[in-house]
Design goal:
By secondary structure, the chain is of the alpha+beta class. It is built from 6 helices and 4 strands; from the N terminus they run H-H-H-H-H-H-E-E-E-E. It has a 4-stranded antiparallel β-sheet with strand order 1-2-3-4. Strand 2 and strand 3 form a beta hairpin.
């Protein structure tokens, strides 16, 4: 009888741990969104690996620039690669300054990236209220979780926030894929 109770308690504990592990990225995204709405930069920063996020964003920009001009084999041309390297050297410090808890909070609230990163910049577009963004979340592997945020009613491509697992129950934002 005692062995059955121990077996049952162990099974229940493992089930609860598995359930918490599966649900944890949704909880982390919700906590990030709450911190963004409260404009609590310190709380939001707890859920972000800033060094990895900025490095991945710089790499993504460089890769996108390099692949704007490709040869017949689908490889970037030498001119495109050189241009991407120069642009990356110039954009690196800019990414470091523009990707902040405040700009990330605005993205989480559904603002388009160009107004979220530089809100004071007038781009010749009418001012857009953020509204309630459309959010989709799903696992993209055992240790990757993607949260796609699309501004409501603007018909733009979504922004993909990619969280990486940090241990069993913890997740941190490590990638940001901007539309374009």
């Amino acid at each position: 009888m005692r062995a059955r109770m121990l077996w049952g308690a162990t099974l229940l504990s493992l089930s609860l741990l598995l359930g918490a592990s599966i649900a944890s990225p949704w909880w982390h995204v919700q906590q990030m969104r709450q911190a963004a709405q409260a404009r609590d930069a310190a709380a939001l920063s707890e859920y972000v690996d800033w060094e990895q996020l900025r490095a991945n964003l710089k790499f993504g920009v460089q890769r996108r620039l390099a692949h704007q001009s490709v040869n017949a084999r689908g490889e970037p041309t030498k001119a495109a690669s050189l241009g991407a390297a120069v642009a990356a050297a110039l954009l690196g410090p800019l990414v470091d300054q523009l990707i902040t808890p405040q700009s990330l909070a605005r993205i989480l609230q559904g603002q388009p990236p160009e107004t979220a990163v530089i809100p004071a910049l007038e781009l010749g577009k009418p001012s857009q209220a953020a509204g309630q963004p459309e959010i989709r979340m799903a696992y993209a592997g055992l240790n990757r979780f993607v949260c796609s945020i699309q501004s409501a009613g603007h018909g733009e491509e979504p922004i993909h926030l990619v969280l990486h697992r940090q241990g069993l129950l913890s997740w941190k934002l490590a990638e940001l894929s901007l539309p374009g």
